Amino acid sequence: MTKSTSLFIETLFIKDGHPLHLKWHQQRVNNTFNKFFQNTQPFLIEERVNNLPLSLQKCKITYSEKIESIEFEPFIPKQINSLRIVESEPFDYAYKYADRATLNQLRERREDCDDILISINGYIKDTSFANVVLFDGEQYFTPDPPLLYGTKRAQLLELAVIKALPIRTSDLHLFKELHMINALANLGDYVINIDKIF
Description:
The chain has 2 domains: 4-74, CATH 3.30.470.10; 83-196, Alpha-Beta Barrel (D-amino Acid Aminotransferase, Chain A, domain 2). With 198 residues, the chain is α+β, with helices and mostly antiparallel strands. The model is unreliable at 1-5 (pLDDT under 50). It is globular and about 45 Å long. The chain is built from 4 helices and 12 strands. The chain has a 5-stranded mixed sheet, covered by helices on one side. Strands 2-1-3-4 form a 4-stranded antiparallel sheet. The chain has a 3-stranded mixed sheet with strand order 5-6-7, with no helix packed on it.
């Protein structure tokens, strides 16, 4: 394993001085250690990130077998109003690697759109920075499998707010809206009309 692929990131939303949704973030860290660092005990996020300033913040933890860095920055929501479907060769991003080179290269193909909607073998996956949820007017569905098993996605699945199933790009016309979700974005924060996906 190369140095670039042995680095991982965990991005948290800090509200009122505390990281949100710790259960799912810790679960992903534990899964990463079980896969890549089996002889090392995973660090506990709660012990490393707590009692912080009350302003809303984005926290980025970069780690390998140990924490390499913890960085904080103000959370500034992105402006996303349109998506370009980009077909990709299969690639591995099931774990949250620090190396985003493939995602960045795909995003360069967005042309005049704000971001990309990645498709692999004709199946919808994620955008460049978020899992997606599709709304048909009655129910919410998320592509299965995604590129990344995100923490907000895991939470909404556990709460039965969304359902997971394979979704083809050719199925997009069956839906009304696409929602983008991640640790910093809830269902409803980023809503794209289906006619704004090209």
